[in-house]
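Continuing the series of single-chain predictions for the mutant panel. This is the parent chain; the variants come on the following pages.
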Amino acid sequence: MSSNVHFSSQTDLWASPEWFVQQCRIEFGEFDLDPAANAENAKAERFFTKEDNGLSQNWNADRVWLNPPYGRVIKDWIAKALHEYDQGRAKKIMMLLPARTDTRWFWSFYERTDVEVRFIKGRLKFGGSKNSAPFPSMLVIIGA
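Parent structure:
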């Protein structure tokens, strides 16, 4: 996949930067589930692929890593994460998201007292791309 794809809507599946995930593992511990992954980019031993449809599964995990597709379905993934946490089926969820403070989905969690938002300085490089993402990112921690 060329790095030019990163600046288009040809795909919304980009692997989380490994160095960043490793920093999160050091702080939060190993992840029990990655509900939006594939065999090549999963950040937990247990993961759901597109075919498994993590949106339709009960997550049942202590620590979840979620780097959802950044297209139109991102709002569905955020709603699912909040639902799984509220239902007690996930104790802590770390979501790597674009920092889009002008969206409804951002405000769906921002003012909750059980959520922490950390804006990431600079721009991340996803999936081994040579270029940085064309947007800033944030780490959202549900269960903070």
